[in-house]
Amino acid sequence: MVDLDELSLAIEDGDGDLAVELTLAAIAAGLVPQAILGAMTAAMDEVGDRFQANLIFVPEMLVSARAMRRAMAELEPILV
Predict the structure, then answer these.
(1) Which of 19, 34, 44, 65 is the S-S candidate for 10 at Cβ 3.0 to 4.6 Å?
(2) Are 11 and 44 in contact (CB under 8 A)?
(3) Domains and CATH numbers, the chain
(4) CB-based contacts of 52: which residues, under 8 Å, 6+ apart?
(5) 46-79 pLDDT, tens per residue?
(6) In sequence order, what DSSP letters do the residues of the chain get, joined into one string?
(7) Which residues contact 20 (CB under 8 A, 6 or more apart)?
(8) In this structure, how many other beta carbons lie within 10 angstroms of the beta carbon of residue 44?
(9) Cα(41)–Cα(12) distance, rounded to whole angstroms?
(10) Cα(21)–Cα(12) distance, integer angstroms
């Protein structure tokens, strides 16, 4: 079973390779695409909160956004 919390953490950490791997595994496991998207969105909400609290800065935020973009590239065809 794919842990969507792990996907969220991968995006928060900016680990694009792991985020893509977990996204593909979630798709293969038959998880609802909206649930996968929800985990990704929650990760970016957390990144935004950290940025707003001055715990991270623009470079860290951009790394997380790139990880999400890579994972979204795998999920987008299913959402459409």
Answers:
(1) 19
(2) yes
(3) 4-79 (1.10.1240.10)
(4) none
(5) 999 999 999 999 999 999 999 999 999 999 999 9
(6) ---HHHHHHHHHHT-HHHHHHHHHHHHHTT--HHHHHHHHHHHHHHHHHHHHTTSS-HHHHHHHHHHHHHHHHHHHHHH-
(7) 70, 71, 73, 74
(8) 17
(9) 10
(10) 15
